[in-house]
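To start, one record:
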Amino acid sequence: MYSASSNTCISGLCCSVEDTAAINRIYAIKGRDFRKPLAVCVATVADIPKCVKVGARCASILPDLLPGGVTIVLPRTPQLNPALNPDFATVGVRVPAHEFVNNLCASLGVPIALTSANKSNGPNSSN
């Protein structure tokens, strides 16, 4: 489990998308309903296809949108851990404009699942 510092894109808890036990732990820590999906974060725009299916038209505009505070929602790839958001055909993916988080993603070599640090439905953790 990892904790990332606050910025415009994320603040909170994250783990490897491949670690089912850690994903379940995030839900337990937050008291989060499993019907509320976790977002996924990758280090670079080139890493987005590790999580979601990106068509040519979408791929052409991604470099204009990311990195930054945009979440793209696209169909998940079959390679993505089925325990991550199992009842969802799509996944929200982010490429933050934050060096620490990008370095974390790059050093793990896999996308990370992430959510805010506050308890589910609780006050914002950055306040």
Observations:
- The first strand starts at residue 2 and ends at 4.
